[in-house]
Amino acid sequence: MSANTWRQPTGDSDLPPEPGQAAPSADGTPGAGSGATAAIDEPGRSARRFWSTRRIPAAVVALLSAAAIGLLLYDVVSVRAGRSAMRWRLRLAEELATRPLDDIWVIVGAAVAMALGLWLFLLAVTPGLRRLLPMRQPTGIPGTGEVRAGLDRRAAALVLRDRAVQVPGVQSARVAVGRRKVKARARAHFRELEDVRADLDSELGQAVTSLGLARQPTLTVRVRRPKKG
Amino acid sequence: MLRTVNRVLLGLLGLGLFALGGGVLLGGLDLPRRWDFGMPGWWPFRGPDDVVLGTEGRTRWREEGWWWPTVIAVLAVLLVLLLWWLLAQRRRRLGGVLVDSGDGAAARLDGGTLEDVIEEEAQALDGVSGAHARLTGRSSAPAARVRLLLEPHADPAWTLGRLSRETLTHARDSAGLDRLPSKVRLKEVRHRARRVG
């Protein structure tokens, strides 16, 4: 059984809103019908991603550095006060002064430091919060321009999966929501695959639009027969 | 603010570690000679037989009178700054919101009360099975963080519209605020696929 795959940018689908979506649209929310093109045109609807505060990495780094520096400070002061240095410090100074740079431990340590540094740098410059898809801001209502919302990717997948299994013929469906792509895989146990796929495509196209995301993901639909046996 | 501080400090620290590790690796693998490029004169790691921190480097200024006081002062300042950085990571809940009552007397609305109101009103929305609200920011300029747990039949965009139009607007107006910047996260209850009709 061959898989049928094709893509359709959901923002272009000019499908009429289904009855279930008409009610929310009526009381002011941009519902399914107003579509994605309006979202791009209107100013103030930014599609900025959420940037994580990076509290946990900062706390871990601060804690470890504070512990190390505190220990070193304690030892330096106690040596100044006439006591002998702790053993780890003598050992560390000796190792740093005697091991040549091509010693295996020095090379491993340097590689680890490089990897850790690169990782910290990436943490600093990437947004993080990949699970949150920025949502369009509800417009036309005074005072709501200050609400920034994000939809959990798993929640989006659940919503789309629930819509997919309502299509006649679909026995089961799996939806994977990526940051830019939505991949739906369905098993259809009756009806022509082409028909099921067309229905799924329009149904999920509407559903994706009605999620109210700031950036419309590309939708991919695959339909196949369930395995025999 | 905290986000910028965290990211700048993490980035600088990362670059520093990366440069240190890279410098040691360059020397340890003898790359400048193998790949035939020169390092500047002040470069500390001079090839595979060099060490990371030699005795000469460690004890260079030890006899100077200013050395130990300087080391102790620098370490102490670093320690204080690091502890401040660590403590700044706590999520601070807003204790209260200053309400302008209009007659010149300042009133203070308890932050927890406003949080509870937002949570209760959000939970009453159709399709919301759980809500969690936190006030952050300053008492004169509060901000809200809301987490919603949606029920299987919920429509996220519609729920968000209701939340911002009703719940958050009510909260803002009842506290007499001009603006209440809010961040909302929507999740959904995990559930099995069910065919509805």
UniProtKB/TrEMBL annotation, chain A:
Chain segments annotated as transmembrane: 56-74, 104-126
Protein name (Swiss-Prot/TrEMBL): DUF6286 domain-containing protein
Polar residues bias (residue ranges): 1-11
Domain DUF6286: 115-224
Pfam assignment, any one: DUF6286
Biased composition range(s): Low complexity: 22-39
Region (Disordered): 1-40
Source species of the chain: Streptomyces cyaneochromogenes
Keyword tags: Membrane, Transmembrane, Transmembrane helix
